[in-house]
Design a protein that fits this description.
Layout: H1 11-38, H2 43-60, E1 68-69, H3 75-85, H4 87-106, H5 118-135, H6 137-141, H7 152-161, H8 168-187, H9 194-210, H10 218-222, H11 239-271, H12 277-290, E2 300-301, H13 303-311, H14 318-338, H15 343-356, H16 360-369, H17 372-386, H18 389-419
Antiparallel strand pairs: 1-2
Helix pairs in contact: 1-2, 1-9, 1-13, 1-14, 1-15, 2-12, 2-14, 3-4, 3-11, 4-11, 4-12, 5-15, 5-16, 5-17, 5-18, 8-9, 8-15, 9-15, 11-12, 11-13, 16-17, 17-18
Membrane topology: Multi-pass membrane protein
Domain SLC26A/SulP transporter: 14-380
Protein name: SulP family inorganic anion transporter
Length: 420
């Protein structure tokens, strides 16, 4: 834990930390459920991740303000792993990613984040936003039983081919939730993520009162959410599984590192403090080794929740700890009620989240440059959307390196001409 945060700590700081933690906890619940479902896992896995990872990230991380848990950046990668290898193997991949993160931290890889090309970061984040948004169209339209595919174009084809099965009541519920979210944000801008919970609660309540038998809920698709933490468990590991999952684990580790360090940097800019990148990576590694033991999915620091934490007056890791304990309390006391949440109500929440993480302004700005950065951006974006994140980031890095070498050779050639 960041002990520097407790110098001059007072009862007033404790009160602000606890209040901020409760606010962030309220926001984290619908996001945890939504990201877990979008990743192809059970909704409760998102709550387990929010509790276990959220608690440990605050205790072990290198930023006093970091709020961790399931994030949108992982959705396409985790869904791909679940579709290809299954949920049990996703837990192994997450554990392996934790080991890699500890190695990254010990090797001080965190200091290299400043050299990671902005065009690649914007490219894959925008690609992820497109995948999350499109992935929620079936829930928005009530197409809960259509087959999920690993590739974007196949999922779009599946949606188009099943438009005759669209459910009008799902659309009404989803539109109601979306309108409530937008209205709350319009008239109460400071509400932030609280608008998600309000939208889900009101739209789910309306659907249960007026057309309860005409719409799918979390309970009807996934069963009732248990009101307890699971007994720690780990699936059987073999050499074959390790070799098969290593590429996916490496991508997960890179994503966790990037997401967490970028979030910590945002927190630094807002508070004029500095995080410890080595401690952050090692902490994230331990977190992602422990979380799978409780059936949790990979987790990282998350920008929106961390920013909300700071804006609500947090000053220490106590806020993050409170957020995790609040979600645990909700799980223990109110889990059965979450089973009544309409799946159509979760779709607009993730659509709004994907819009917010799309980096549209930066994307447009790099496009206008019409430079090598533009090419890197588009290659990363298109390959992320139409193939996978591994291909997107890998191709982006290779192309960026080639363009850098070309520029250096050009500069050296110009210097030789001047010298002669």
């Amino acid at each position: 834990m960041n002990l520097e945060a407790f110098r001059g700590y007072s009862s007033h700081n404790l009160k602000n930390d606890m209040l901020s933690g409760i606010v962030v906890g309220i926001i984290a619940i619908p996001l945890g459920l939504g990201f877990a479902i979008a990743s192809g896992t059970a909704p409760v896995a998102g709550l387990y991740t929010t509790i276990v990872a959220g608690l440990l990230i605050s205790i072990l991380g290198g930023s006093r303000f970091q709020i961790g848990g399931p994030t949108g950046a992982f959705v396409p990668v985790l869904l791909g792993i679940v579709l290809q290898f299954g949920y049990e193997n996703l837990l192994i991949a997450g554990f392996m990613a934790g080991i890699l993160l500890i190695i990254f931290g010990l090797c001080k890889v965190g200091s290299l984040i400043k050299f990671f090309p902005k065009s690649i970061i914007i490219g894959f984040q925008s690609g992820i936003a497109v995948i999350i948004f499109s992935g929620q169209i079936p829930n928005f339209l009530g197409l809960h039983n259509i087959e999920k595919h690993e590739y974007f174009h196949l999922n779009i084809k599946e949606i188009i081919g099943n438009t005759h099965l669209v459910g009008i009541y799902s659309i009404i519920t989803a539109l109601l939730c979306l309108l409530i979210i937008l209205a709350v944000l319009r008239f109460f801008p400071k509400a932030g993520g609280l608008s998600y919970l309000i939208g889900i609660l009101v739209s789910s309540l309306v659907s249960s009162l007026f057309f309860s038998n005409q719409i799918e809920t979390i309970g009807s698709i996934y069963g009732e959410i248990p009101n307890q933490l699971p007994v720690p468990h780990f699936p059987e590991v073999t050499i074959e599984k390790i070799l098969a999952l290593l590429p996916s684990s490496f991508v997960i580790a890179i994503l966790i590192g990037l997401q967490s360090l970028l979030t910590a940097r945002v927190a630094d800019e807002m508070t004029h403090l500095r995080h410890n990148s080595k401690k952050e990576l090692i902490g994230q590694g331990i977190v992602n080794m422990v979380t799978p033991l409780f059936y949790g999915i990979p987790a990282a620091g998350e920008v929106a929740r961390t920013v909300t934490n700071i804006k609500n007056g947090a000053s220490s890791p106590i806020a993050g700890i409170t957020h995790a304990l609040f979600v645990l309390l909700v799980l223990l006391l109110l889990a059965p009620y979450a089973s009544h949440v309409a799946l159509a109500s979760l779709a607009p929440v993730l659509m709004v989240v994907s819009w917010n993480i799309s980096k549209k302004e930066q994307f447009a700005s790099i496009l206008k440059e019409k430079s090598g950065h533009t090419l890197v951006l588009m290659v990363t974006f298109l390959l992320t959307v139409f193939t996978n994140l591994t291909m997107g980031i890998g191709a982006g890095l290779c192309l960026s390196s080639l363009l850098f070498l070309k520029e250096r050779m050009k500069d050296n050639g110009n210097q030789l001409k001047k010298a002669s």
